[in-house]
Amino acid sequence: MSDHPRPLPPELFEALEARRERLGPLASRILYFETIGSTNDVASGFAQEGGHEGTVVIADAQTAGRGRRGRVWFSPPSAGLYVSVVLAPGRARLSPERATALLTLSAGVALSEAVEQVTGLVPAIKWPNDLLVGRRKLAGILAEGVAATAAVGLQAVVLGFGINVMSAAYPPALASMVTSLETELGRGIDRAALCAEAIASLAARYDDLLGGRYDAILDAWRARAFGSRGAKVEWDTPSGVRHGITEGIDEMGALLVRSTGSVERIVAGEVRWGLHAAGN
Q1: Is residue 54 part of a domain?
Q2: Which of 47, 93, 170, 193 registers the highest number of CB atoms within 10 A of its CB?
């Protein structure tokens, strides 16, 4: 495993430079690894040590990539994008919970926009952190708060994302559940261009967050969201499994579900999605 950053591949350097004016504070420092355990872990380490906002960690492969709720993110060499960014949303004067929720929604919009810009494919967003093509997963997002030291000041959030770019030999348990851009489009994808566009698009949506333009984020998310309204879902509670029909998200990013005559807010936990309700 490569423990030290390597020079950026020329094609990635050129793609980022072509978008330099759109990157804002992001990609002020870029660390590229051929193979590491997890980009989120490396980015978190830099954040804890006072690593400044905008640091981006990119890997060609991960040996311990992870997604939401501790799931493994399959990260074979050269087959996907594995990226983490150090952000400081405390500047937006939001609670840590809302900042993390809005960052996750912002990233979903940004990645969907980037994929559309580079490939023409428009993936749907599934609450809270996945991109789908049909019912198969194309990309995932993981936002993790980092405990700031006294020297760091503002609390950091590490935002990681993975996009399946090329087809790969997925483990049997995943093969029927995931897809890749190459599989969907039947052609090769410029991985460097997609990586750079994803960071640039994220920079624009992060600017919306810091500027208090929350409606712009929420409206864009709703326009691209899979099942944000009219989808059958179920989730676990201490009293058993509940069922309902989705009714969108609120300003805090919580999923709204109508169940037994009332609307409930789901802010965390596992939601299992069924088919759209009749007429939706």
Answers
A1: yes
A2: 47
Tokens of 155: 């609390």
Strand 225-226 vs strand 124-126: parallel, antiparallel, or unpaired? Answer: parallel
Per-residue pLDDT tens over the stretch 25-51: 999 899 999 999 899 999 988 888 776
The domain in which residue 270 lies consists of 227-276
**238 and 183 inside one domain:** no
Closest CA to 251 of 227, 278, 217: 217
Q: Are 65 and 72 in contact (CB under 8 A)?
A: yes
Give residue 152's pLDDT: 43
Q: Is residue 94's pLDDT more than 90?
A: no
Does residue 81 share a domain with residue 220? yes
CATH number at residue 263: 2.30.30.100
Q: Is residue 264 part of a domain?
A: yes
| 91 and 194 inside one domain | yes
Q: What does the pLDDT average to over 3-23?
A: 94
Q: Does any domain span residue 1?
A: no
Both 156 and 262 in one domain: the answer is no
Q: For residues 250 and 100, what is the distance between their CA atoms, to the nearest angstrom?
A: 14
- Give the residue with greater pLDDT, 74 vs 213: 213
